[in-house]
Amino acid sequence: MENKIGIRSRAEAKLTRSKAPPKTLSPEETQELIHELQVHQLELEMQNEDLRSSRSELEALLSRYADLYDSAPIGYCTLDQNGLVMEINLKGAELLGIERRHLIQRPFLIYVAEEDRARFRSYLSMALKNGGRETYELKLNPREGLPFDARIEQTIGKDIDERSVRRIAIIDITRQKQAEREEKKLLAREQKAKLEAEEAGRLKDEFLATVSHELRTPLNAIYGWAHLLQMGEADPETRNTALEAIERNVKAQERLIDDLLDLSSMITGKLCLKIRPLNLAEIIEAAVETVREAAEAKGIEMKLNVDPSIEPVMVDPDRMQQVFWNLLSNAIKFTPQEGGGIEIFLERADRSIQIRVKDSGIGISSDFLPYVFDRFRQGEASATRSHGGLGLGLAMVRHLTELHGGSVSAESAGEGKGATVMVRLPIRAVKK
Which of 26, 79, 263, 336 could bridge to 166 as Cys pair (CB 3.0-4.6 Å)? Predict the structure, then answer.
């Protein structure tokens, strides 16, 4: 096209410089010239038609591209070398919570969460140097709405002036991240449940081993003394000792069986309370007298501190007696012989009545303290423990106290530093 224009210009210039008059054309030459001009005109019209068709096709392609660009389910954005928004689709503007026209020539960085901005700058600079594709995750802060997790897919391209631009895709991965977090939580819960089930199985096995041992011990004693009496060779003193031993072991056996039956009632929810107004000081004093002989046998001093202003409360006397007996028996069991002491306090605490049993015994380790009131839990392994019993005492204390609408807690400075167990009962409200 440029060659034809150049030839025409030179021809016109030559014609102008020529002094010769224009040549007169014959009719035949004129007719031929007109024919050539008509052919050229048709060629030009056909070329224009091709150009118009190509332009229409191009406009249709651009329209389809624009529709796809704006209706895309993910955000697309083009940034210049300074990180300013050159163009962005509708989804991108929606994700950033601002109209598209207000985003143009604004820095994309302002919509990146503060903690991720340095990383975003780093990825932009690396992309310009390496010219490769980068995929990374960060948190975006839209102008309106809540921050969300986004995955950024970034490439480097050229604009119409051959300048480098960054083209990024913005994908909202909030649901994916939530699903991942929920999956992690679910896996953690499953793992925890598995460990708890394994631990519960181990504790039940230990408990059954303990039950077997504790039931067999009095039976062996009863069998031994009964065999001695059957032989008929025991003198009166030995006979009395045997009968006392048999009676003592029968009572121990009865107490173990009662604890097991009570535990079964607690687990199945069949344990009922017979509540009536009662002075707690009387129940505590009776429990102290019940265990006094065992305490004196170990040389343990017991002190009772009662607030005389405390009024009667609604409790089941038998079950509350069981609570205090278990507290005191536990304190005596784990307090060393000679020089040990146990203090019992009956006092007010806020809107509750509190019973504290404080001993100078072996204490409770910090690891075991959270589980001290759990069923089947003991501070010592069943195979190596040096203290007898089923280890149900404090579990029963907690359950019976909670049936009365109260609560229990324990404190200890550590092993060898004694322990304090507290029972709190509401002054009025009682769970029936």
Answer: 79
Residues 371-379: contacts with CB under 8 Å, at least 24 apart: 372/410, 373/397, 373/398, 373/408, 373/410, 375/263, 376/200, 376/203, 376/204, 376/206, 376/207, 377/203, 378/206, 378/210
* Per-residue pLDDT in tens (0 to 9) along the chain, 432 residues: 445 666 667 777 776 776 566 667 788 878 888 888 888 888 888 888 888 888 877 777 776 767 677 778 889 898 888 889 998 888 888 889 888 888 999 999 999 998 999 988 888 877 766 666 888 889 998 887 788 999 998 888 887 777 888 888 999 998 998 999 999 999 999 999 998 888 778 777 776 776 776 677 778 888 888 888 888 777 888 888 888 888 878 877 787 777 777 777 777 777 788 888 888 999 899 888 888 888 888 889 899 999 988 888 888 888 888 899 889 988 998 888 777 899 999 998 888 899 999 999 889 888 888 888 887 666 554 433 445 556 678 888 898 899 889 999 999 988 888 899 999 998 864 444
Structure tokens at 317: 């006397």
Distances (CA, A) of 168 to 54, 68, 316: 31, 16, 73
Contact 84, 107 (CB under 8 A): yes
Rg of the chain in Å (alpha carbons): 48
- The conformation of residue 88, written as its DSSP 8-state character, comes to E
Token readout for 60 is 């249709």
C-alpha 214: how far from chain center = 41
Q: Of the candidates 255, 319, 321, 311, which has an alpha carbon nearest to the alpha carbon of residue 285?
A: 321
Q: How many residues does the chain have?
A: 432
The 8-class DSSP code of residue 116 comes to: G
- Name residue 353's beta-bridge partners: 348, 425
199 in helix, strand or coil? helix
d(C-alpha 307, C-alpha 314), whole Å: 17
Cβ proximity of 138 and 111 under 8 Å: no
> Contacts from 85-92 at CB under 8 Å and sequence distance 24+?
86/159, 86/165, 91/170, 92/170
**Which of 258, 329, 345 minimizes the C-alpha distance to 297?**
329
How far is residue 174 CA from its own chain's centroid? 18
Residue 282: name the closest of 304, 299, 254 by CA. 304
Q: Is 65 exposed, middle or buried (0-12, 13-18, 19+ CB in 10 A)?
A: exposed
